[in-house]
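re: that chain from earlier
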Amino acid sequence: MATDSVAWFEFLLNPTLLESHLNQSNPEPSAIGLIIQFIYNSIKRSDGGNMELETMDLAPQENTKKKNALSVLALKTAAHLNWNLETFEQKLPLHMLDALLVALLIETGEEMSTPSLHGTLDTGPLLSYQLFSLALYHRYALRALVQSKLPAKPIKVSSVPIPGQQDPTQESREVQEGIFEVLSRGADVSVRILEQLLGAGEVRAPALATFTVHTHQSSAITHLWDRCHLVPDEQFKYQIHYDLGAYHYLKERFEDAYSHFSEAHKLMSELGPQPEYCQVNIDKLKGYYNSCASLCGRSTPVDKRSLYDRFLYTRDTGYQDLVKVLSEDNLAFEIPLYMRKNLELDLQARPEKAPQGLLMQVQTLNAIRCVLEGESWNSSYPLHLAQSGKPGVQFLIQALAAKFSKFNNSHKERLRMFIMAISITSNICEVLVPAVRACPPLKALFSQEELVLMWPKHEETKLQAYPPVDPNSLNDIIWDLIHSYNPEVLKNAVMLYKTTLPPRQDIPKKEVPELSTKWEMPIPIYNTIMKLPQTPQRELVYLYIAKAVELAQAKSFRSSLSLLEDANSHAAKLPGRETGRLCKLLMWMLLMTKIQHCLHELPCVDNSVMSELTNEARQCLSAHSGRDGIAPWTGVNYWCILILLNAGEWGSLLGGISLPSHIYLLGLVKPLAATAHALREKHTSKTVWYDLWDVVVGIIANSSQHKRSSSGQSLSMERHHDSVVMSRSAFLDFIENLRDPTCLSILISLLGHVLNLLNQEPSSEIHIDHLAMWPPSVSGNGWKDKVKDTLTWLVDHATRLYPTGTHTSAALCTSWHLSKADLAYMSDQYHNALAGYLTAVFVATDFLRNDNGVDQSVLTDSIIRRMIRCCMNLNCYTQAAILCQFLESIDYSTALRCLQERNAVDAMDAYYSCLWDVSLIEFIINMHHKRGEVHRRDKALKMMGLLEVNSNNNDEIQREAAKVRKHKFLRSMAKQYL
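^ sequence. v structure.
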């Protein structure tokens, strides 16, 4: 306890302390904390445990005085909070709030002290403060019933009470359900009383100074009711109308609810900025009001609704005024962006249901909304705009110009960049730029140079944009040389750059290769080009190759190949003795880029393309033995070996062609190819398998070490053992380009076996294939994390390439998904583990269409138990109980424990249709009967009454019933986790 905090019993000894304590800026304990302590100590029993020690020396009447004094202190504290029911509901347990308001009824009038007798209560003769306490209690009763039907976090109840450590806020479910039962029985009375109180006169709320606290000397206490505060009539009525409307809405009495929400809506403008005695939630009130109005057929006029409501209305009634609504929303941002995008997708899917041209207008307005909001806009929009032609561009300009005066500087800058982007990425600048120039507000966003850059690139425009005699145009030419990838633009830019004078004669121009430090190319090609005479054609070839390398790095292989072909055709015309060498090197670079493109597209590549590339790769690798002295460089060798490995041409790598010994990749590729070849031919060759084992284990175990710098920071350094063929980072790069399913399966099996040996825990074992291939032991233990990270990366790579059995066998994909799930389970990633196990089931059975013994092949008992553990750790205990039925021998102890768990977050009765074991259904029926959960009990009884669940059925009927329910459950799990 802090030194400046006050214990609750000090206020009991000196009640005058309370007001000064609560008026502090940040009192400790807080007002809510004091209410909890006062109520807890006034209602707790004194007949057991440590509670008896506090009252054993007190006479019965003194004990009663103490409890009354505590109740009054709680009421004084609640009055300080202006009787804010919303705060009480959020921070007080239900039984404490109930006790607090019953105590208020007792203090304000003896005839009101029993809420169950309010059915015969006459509100006419009641005093103003009694009206307030009566309204507060019955408002609480209706609000509690409404809240009970809304989703809420489960109450954590300790199964074993610890003496001396009781939690004052702990509330058993039985107590809560008992209170709800009492409130539900009196709900009609609460409605009738609150409706009567709407016509009451003056209402006053008890204040902190109203209540007088009992002391050990006092015999009779009189509260100072004249010190109550006046409650404004509009606040009192607004709160009653709102609470009555919410309760009627819950009971689906929408006409009554609409009537009350209408009155509350009218009173809202009279409440003032900060009403003391009512809690206003404008959004909730509008939601209730609009919903009731719609259900009762009393909707407000469309033009007076919010933009969101108008959007929903026009979407459902033929898209009338849709463009107007979306245009207004581009400034208001009221309609969620995902709803606007969904509308666009609907119009694309069903164009016949919308007026002609509406789709393009919606796409334009959505793009503007994304730009203004700073979100990424649809990359295909420029294509749609180009297809629409001049009408689409005119609508874009009109939509921007109509709201331009309301845009701020940030919006205008975003629009400027947007217009420049669509003019560059689409072929519509001939229409777009003149339209921008014709619109003064939009034209003001751009400089003259920017408008020139966006203008169509026909010949006369180029001459205007890049005059060869004007030195000031040099920057524009350099911009094209650096940023453009169009061969014609680059060709003209090189010619203009060579003929344009520099701005200053004393500062010479740079050569084209010196314009950008980011341009790269293979060293043999660079050295060969630099030996050729310096001509504009040579500079153009250099530029084409550098741009092709950039595009290949960005995975834009088609454009890269196009530039390389242009470079090759121009290189053949260059003067010099190195021309032939350059052309041959360019042919190998073309082959390397084609291989990169092919591997990037795998497994979706035609066999004819693969066959052609493998033939070219063999010829390229054979060039090492040629007599012309022109050999492919390391990068070409790397990609040629990779295409042979991924194409299954393992014989070529094992001796079919003569390979140079200096290629470091062969140290890994040869044993991997030999293992894959032996596996395909069904040969048993432990020597080959163990060679691959030694190589991969050496790479992972000996690839890195850590040293400390002078500052103490840990630095990671790559190192190589004599037996290590490559570093771990190079190994990961190799895996990234590995596509062959057999090779992937071998490496996953090897690394999975290593990890299982290092773990030495059967419960954490990773599923693998080809277990008999590998040694039974491995040395070392400090590199387990590296093995785990590498295996995780490899399995993710394999499942990303082959998510299903479309391009390889379903058995391989299933095995990889199981390995991925086991790795997630090992890392306590239970959601991901469940997703992996479910994916394996669906891949193995073709989405349950071919369920031929899936229980035995995929859902083994060990995997099912892991799924059960995952569900339990995610608090999905009902799902865990259903999975217990999947076991060959049903685990009743786990299933029953899960069914009784109160912290479950999955809907219990939603899965009753997935039960087929009669014993579990009988247990559930009995459990709900004991708890008084009639609705759930009846639902379980209905399941029990189905003919196919009868335990007397023959085995075939029982198996079919179980299979149907298993499939239903697995599909429901897939909707949640996949």
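The CA atoms of residues 157 and 170 lie 7 Å apart.
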